[in-house]
């Protein structure tokens, strides 16, 4: 008998990588106790239409009801059941009828005879089937309750938990920098945590910001991310070194200037609102309540009515967590205006000196950061 007396195991969540990884671990754990390979079966639950849902449920029923040749316990894994998500196939009446059939199969199962494992990502948590599984299954929700995969704060607990399993933690600013450089990709983030943890010397348990800056590639925003991050940190030498690496790797000046301008636009808007007293800064970045109030149609949000795309021309299209990280070192309004003028001048200069792009950007950086060095 399995450790759980529940009739089946149900693993779900918003992120398919986390769900698949947990499902594979549970499958391997049970499979180790079932030596007959013919008593183990994996059924693909991916369905693009109602006919495929019906076929998957029928195959699952046949497998569950099949008697082992030697009378041993069987293991059946319904893998990647996509028809349990909030999509066109999942909402179809015929699919809902098949889900009811699936529920009957699961309710009648004897876990002593057949170990059933189901994995599903994403999952529609509003459905009665989901709530029924919570009560009746050996239930696991991977990645917490958040289903918004477009917010960095939804990924931070996942990455932190992975680090804890490896016996390491993140130092100040290391985790935000990792999320910014990798982007919102669970698989890459987890692999990067393992790499950083393995890099630490014996006895070290903290992944520092310097480790992430040195070892983590700039996947989310391209090769110019490092130079942009260095520039707005105010560190002159670090910025010059990053610019040199950018051009050494064959980079071009224009996307780098564009990245600098985009960041500067957001900081200009943030600085203006903070200076006016409209936007408050809290201990953990931007005060979310004041930001949401300003974004409403009754306030500054009215100037962006009908604009839905994410752009650095519209501060309110940005995530407050991301803005809080950018505004942790907020330059003066004068410096930001000077920056914008220097970016424009540098763009015009590289048109005239197209073969000296690196030198133009180095001169621009010295004018912007040299006065504070």
What does this structure look like?
It is built from 16 helices and nine strands. The N and C termini lie far apart (69 Å). It is elongated. Helix content is 53%, strand content 10%. Helix 2 packs parallel to helix 4, helix 6 packs parallel to helix 8 and helix 11 packs antiparallel against helix 16. Helix 2 links the parallel strand 2 and strand 3. The protein is an alpha/beta fold.
Which features characterize this protein?
9 strands; single chain; alpha/beta; five-stranded parallel β-sheet; 373 residues; two-stranded parallel ribbon; 16 helices
Order of secondary-structure elements: EHEHEHHEHEHEHHEHHHHEEHHHH
Large-scale geometry: elongated
Major β-sheet annotation: 5 strands, parallel
Radius of gyration using CA atoms only: 27 Å
Uncertain runs with pLDDT below 50, 5 residues or more? none
Question: How many strand segments?
Answer: 9
Q: How large a portion of the residues is in β-strands, by DSSP E?
A: 5-15%
Backbone structural class? alpha/beta
Distance between the termini: 69 Å
Q: Which strand order does the major sheet show? A: 2-3-4-1-5
Q: What's the average pLDDT?
A: 87
Fraction in helix:
40-55%
Q: Tally the helices.
A: 16
Summarize the structure.
The protein has 16 helices and nine strands. By secondary structure, the chain is an alpha/beta fold.
